[in-house]
Amino acid sequence: MNRLTGKTAVITGGATGIGLAAAKRFIQEGAFVFIYGRRQEALDAAVAELGPKARAITGSVSDEADLDRLYVAVKAERGTLDILFANAGTGSPLKLGEITAAHIDETFETNVKGTIFTVQKALPLMGEGGSIILTGSSAGTTGAPGFTAYSASKAAVRNFARTWAEDLKGTGIRVNVLSPGATATELAKAALGEEGQKSYGAMTPLLRMAEPSEIAAAAVFLASSDSSFMTASELAVDGGLAQL
Amino acid sequence: MNNHSAQKLAGKIAVVTGGSSGIGLATAKRFLEEGAHVVITGRREAELKEAAATLKGNVTTVVGDVSRLEDLDRLFAVVKEKHGHIDVLFANAGAGTVAPLEAATEAHFDQTFDVNVKGTFFTVQKALPLLRDGGSIIVTSSVTNVLGTAGFSAYGASKAAVRNFVRAWTMELKDRQIRVNCISPGPTETGALQKTAGLTADQAKEAAAQYALQIPMGRWGKPEEIAAAVVFLASEESSFITGIDLPVDGGLAQV
């Protein structure tokens, strides 16, 4: 505990799922957390659960003015930023043969462009000891049927960490990718049903889906000084799914 | 509010091969701080005893060479008698000397593969009867497992071999819920460079500074930084992680 004492963190896509689980763990470890998301209701419920060391800012990662508002709020209340978990993402399946321009645009707008501006606009608040974590996916290195756009967008995100580690050389800011496999978020559980969860789980060597708290534990590792000599890496938290 | 106790390995039994210096010793120290009981091995008795003297907590030393199966049998007999089981196995012992292809001898090749490949294989095999279901195995590989490094062809290939062991063992041990991962340190301040390359202190310092320029973080890692990552893989914090290669390399092999 208390590996993030006194730190300030921003988590995009922070109202539910992996983002919310990470917000809980970051706060348990001593951090002050801004969660960012599009839906006011979900954010309100999350902040009520997270307590006094959480703030919610409403906005979309694909809207630059929204992101500006986020960082103005962080600067006003905390002055600087130590940890950025660029986690907001979207994805739905469309098989090759059925892909539309709108489907590609929507996926890349959030996952690729959204991640770039989330990070770029945070940089003026970050410095020595800072840690940026990008949410990738096991889909970025595997063939997942129907997930052309999503998988390609996550492969793009994995590559950002390589380039940015070089761009950030000398700043003392580290950047790594956290790539979950199938994770039992409320959203995933509802979408997959009991049978779907079982068959997704059966694909991994650990024979189950991840709990969001298990992804959050890995996010704490990357956020904290426990990973002080890691940058540009991809940490797979996928039960072995994409490792064999 | 939560179950994340201050000590991440409280009461766990951990075995660390190659524990008398560098990454192994730093990890033994962190394991002890996290509440584990630790057994360390090393080939040279004087060095091993000296290392143990710097550690505080429940430490046992067993002298032995991982490339000798009878030494491994003795190691695990001691672990069994003292602790009865193993929760965490850090198969870390390794060897490596610099030899360009045209000058490398058979002895150089055999020594590298005997310790790094055969030694790792049998360390894990012989630990299995004592490993608890749900335990964690961590194998030390190296960033050279994916890099082309002049003079390190035998070493790099041996480290690529152990990275692949981890894949197969993940599948073989999944029914016992034993997680298997490897850690790949980049250049680490262990003093090994000076020893293995036969450099003077000044030459080693100069070579290290040159090499640091290639590393995105602009410096070498410290053994404590590798140890922190091993603790992560050993503990419940990595409960959904298996089969991976965790690079702790300042970005060297990532960009």
Helix and strand layout, with pairings?
The complex is a heterodimer of chains A (244) and B (255).
Chain A: E1 8-12, H1 17-28, E2 32-37, H2 40-50, E3 54-58, H3 64-78, E4 83-86, H4 101-122, E5 131-135, H5 148-167, E6 174-180, H6 186-202, H7 212-223, E7 234-237
Parallel strand pairs in A: 1-2, 1-4, 2-3, 4-5, 5-6, 6-7
Helix pairs in contact in A: 1-7, 3-4, 4-5
Chain B: E1 13-16, H1 22-33, E2 37-42, H2 45-53, E3 59-63, H3 69-83, E4 86-91, H4 106-127, E5 131-140, H5 153-172, E6 179-185, H6 192-197, H7 201-212, H8 223-234, E7 245-248
Parallel strand pairs in B: 1-2, 1-4, 2-3, 4-5, 5-6, 6-7
Helix pairs in contact in B: 1-8, 3-4, 4-5
Quick take:
The complex is a heterodimer of chains A (244) and B (255). By secondary structure, chain A is of the alpha/beta class.
Please give a handful of descriptors for the protein shown:
heterodimer; A: 244 residues; alpha/beta; Rossmann fold; seven-stranded parallel sheet; 7 helices; 7 strands; 15% strand; globular; B: 255 residues; 8 helices; 16% strand
